[in-house]
Write a structure and sequence with these properties.
The chain is built from eight helices and 16 strands. With 362 residues, the protein is α/β, with parallel strands linked by helices.
Length: 362
Amino acid sequence: MTDNFGAGTYNMALLGASSLKGKEVKRILRERHFPLRRLALLDTEEAGGQLTEFDDEPAIIHPIARESFENVAMAIFASSPTFTKSYWQMAEGSGCEIIDLTYFLEDYPQAKLRAPGVEGLCGEEAYAQPEQAPGPRISVPAHPVSVAIAAILGCASRLSPVQRSVITVYEPVSEHDQAGVQELHHQTVNLLSFQKIPRQVFDSQVAFNLLASYGKESRPTLREVRHRIYSHLGRLMRGTIVQPALRVLQAPVFHGYAFSCFVELKERLPEEKVENALNQHPRVLCRDEDSQPSVVEAAGSDQILLGRVERDPSSESGYWIWGALDNLRFAALNAVQVAEELVAADARQGSQSAGGTVPVSS
């Protein structure tokens, strides 16, 4: 798909270029040969002036100003909801297509939830979302876990109707960006040296621990994360599959989601048949009982890694599925795939911008 875009023709702004997701978006844009004419790397005043690179060339991160969006076709927001709240109207006012990885705009009337990697798995009607309001398009890439679970339940439902499902999700600290990673590191070091641990991000001990909730000062809460995953999953499946019971726990790992999924089907099927249905791109299934996927293996992968399907002893038609995915990589890939589809849609309309109104080059 990426090889058919032709020469670089799009000006894009990446907001939150110094964030972990921003760095991953930058990497994937290069790897997939997105048709860029210019990539503006933008961030806060504090991050402005940082030297980085793009496409093997030196690049500088600039602080955001209103003129940052002039002659820009697309803006990807990859920092925090507060960051997006401060600047998204600047981008919209300049006519930019907006791709929001921070979820701040997910309930905005103009926004459309997107998951290109799984759309159609639960039936085309599940993805027939209402037309967006006139004006620049706002796309919100679905939460990586909701994409993975929608893929699993969608594939399983094609074999037999899903009666019920129960999912436990283990969240990594990198969902709180570099500050979360640093706090886990410092907590680990301080605990091993019997010193007071920092609690600025999680307001609780994360190191050597599993949490069902944070301290009261930490945001977003795990309850809010669960609500987002649940909401995105419901919007992706649009009532075609029974919603799962869902729990989110904080795990003491730096990167990568892990999840345990129980699925009960209407009829009893051989485990191998369920595995064959699941083992399709972007899902890779490992049948080796002694080598099941982990977040370490998932690091840097575009795929959802799944373990062998195991029948539950108490349910003839109940199956356990273990999975892992790179939270940063998968989120960034989803955002770039959305951008690619916007390019393809513009090409089909015979224009490089929505309605020919968005400037793409200076």
